[in-house]
Amino acid sequence: xxxxxxxxLSIEKFQEAGMNIPLLQVEHxxxxxxxxIKNRSCHLAxxxxxxxxxxxxxxxxxxAGSGILTIGLNRYHIxxxxxxxxxxxxxxxxxxxxxxxxxxxxxxxxxxxxxxxHMAGLFKNYPYFQAEKAVVELDEQQxxxxx
Length: 147
Prior knowledge:
The chain is of the alpha+beta class. The chain is built from 4 helices and 10 strands. It has helices at 11-20, 112-115, 117-125, 140-146, and strands spanning 8-9, 35-39, 48-54, 57-64, 67-71, 74-78, 82-86, 92-96, 102-108, 135-137. The chain has a 5-stranded mixed β-sheet. A 5-stranded antiparallel β-sheet has the order 2-9-4-7-10, with no helix packed on it. A hairpin with a 2-residue loop joins strand 5 (67-71) and strand 6 (74-78). The chain starts with 7 loop residues before the first strand and ends with a helix. Residues 44-98 form the AraC-type arabinose-binding/dimerisation domain. It comes from Pedobacter hartonius. This is AraC-like ligand binding domain-containing protein. One of its GO terms (biological process) is regulation of DNA-templated transcription.
């Protein structure tokens, strides 16, 4: 049986694919920098994002909304006061089950580490970027300090 092709998307290709492939459609976000922070309410994901890999790290802090985030073989029910750590090597998918979303996400392209080389190894081996530990639940007060 042939394995399905799972795309490995750069920030730019993720943006392009999101505009042309219905299962990957997300609101446009620019890849103007190797490090960027965006508001989730301004950059909404569609209800469903098909399995894919990205060429960048993503940290997502959720303050409103919910859904199922699959990272590798691990499924997480994401809800407010959670942070997800997504490593570029992991296959991920998203299924939203809420109309409204809020919080923030941070995209970090590996090029960023060319400027701060000591961080590359730390990020690559950071425990929360492992699929089985990729989601951390905060209490409301902790979440408010981040927001």
